[in-house]
Amino acid sequence: MTCWLAKRTLLLPLLLGAAGGVFRDSPWGGPFFLASLAYALRKEGAAPGWALGFALWEALPYGVAGYPYGLLGILTALAVLLFAWGGLALPLMAPRGLPRAGALLLAEIVKLELLEVPIGLLEPGAGGTPLGLSARLLGSYAPLLAILLLALALGRSRWALLLMPLALPLPKGLAEPVAPLRAVVVQAASTPEEKYAQDLGLTYLKLTPPTGVLVLWPETATRIPPSLPYWLGGVGTGRTNAAVLVVNGREVSRRAKAFLIPGVERLPGHLVRMRDLLYRKAGVPVPESFDLERGQLVPLGPFGVLICYEGSLPKATAALAHQGAQVLVELSNESMFDGTPLKARRLKEAQLKAAETGLFYLKASESGPSYAIDRLGRLLARTPEGARGHWTLPYALSPLGSSSWGVRYRGPLLALTFLAGVAMLSVAFPLKGGCGCQRERGRG
């Protein structure tokens, strides 16, 4: 009996951590995600197990995507698992309560702002909820701070249950969005291997209807269409992974990818040969575009274009909004993650970015889902995953750009949020005042 209880005690944090990941990515899972996080913040000795459960959920998409590639897939999933586990287990080893929440806040800021690795994140749990709107006033990490404080309150008092609606999706009847414009998004539902082995430009052209509205093609669509009047898409040639805007058959602006994926597109020189060798052993083509030339993060006309991985970085979205983008557009190629929970997490990240900037958010994904999100972070339209064809997405431009304080004053707000994390963590290390004076007076 004692042995069974010990095993159960060790298993409980693991299960609750995995459940935390599941509910973070679920549209209606916010309250359950907070309950799981409340356990991690309050329970002594739960840190390693809870972090491992959460990390296993985080690594699952990479394991599924890498399974056909043998050793390469195993190494990729293992690297994600170790990073996610370490990035959560270390801050969770801080004293329970407020210091532990502060450590998690600081760790997430370091992951996204310094390391640029969006793995093992808690903040997407606020996507599409009233908590996500706090970013518009208080900056990119205000939703994360709200999540942590609400989880702490939930662990201390039953009255915190009254605040749980803040973690539920925003109602659609409230402030109905005005979206007078339409974009046609095209999905070819091709695999990465198919894209590298053949020119899919003709496939995209056949799937694109004759239209005068904006046409969106996903990342690395391989060629610029010769005849579309208004087109925005991804072009992969040589060492450039670029987004291009075409008006009346003429290229008017382009930019190369500014933030490169660590471990794939961004590697120390001495590891490049090892990466290429692993890819060849696994039978994966090694495209020239792996060794990319880094571009500048600038809007293309009114469009703040995010190329795949850039959509997970708050500083990329905020920079485009600060430069006057009137709508955010993400061009992605995520077909290797079909059927995995990664796509649900990416949707919640996009909802957070729309809520923070106050701009509509459009996404064109190679195999779906593509979607439209309004200025409050609510999902307006979504295409089927794994389907080939074209669909219409509603959106609107913001002629004056973003009016978000979170964007306008991002630097100072980020510094204040970081200091708030330091202050929360410092509660565990109170200063001992008096320099022994009390003791001296006692002796006298």
How much beta, percentage-wise? 5-15%
Number of helices: 15
- Assign the CATH superfamily of the largest domain: Carbon-nitrogen hydrolase
**What's the alpha carbon Rg, rounded to whole Å?**
23 Å
Order of helices and strands: HHHHHHHEHHEEEEHEHEHEEEEHHH
For the biggest β-sheet, the strand order reads: 5-4-3-2-1-11
Low-confidence region ranges: 434-444
Count structural domains: 2
CATH first level of the largest domain: which class? Alpha Beta
Shape: globular
Structural class by helix and strand composition: alpha/beta
Corresponding CATH architecture of the largest domain? 4-Layer Sandwich
Written description of the protein model:
The strands form two sheets. A six-stranded mixed beta sheet has the order 5-4-3-2-1-11, with no helix packed on it. The chain has a five-stranded mixed beta sheet with strand order 6-7-8-9-10, with helices on one face. It has two domains: 2-169 and 411-426, no CATH class; 181-395, Carbon-nitrogen hydrolase (Nitrilase/N-carbamoyl-D-aminoacid amidohydrolase, 4-Layer Sandwich). 44% of the residues lie in helices and 14% in strands. Helix 1 crosses helix 2 (30-42) and helix 2 (30-42) packs across helix 7 (142-156). The longest helix is centred in the N-terminal third of the chain and has 23 residues, at 2-24. The chain is of the alpha/beta class.
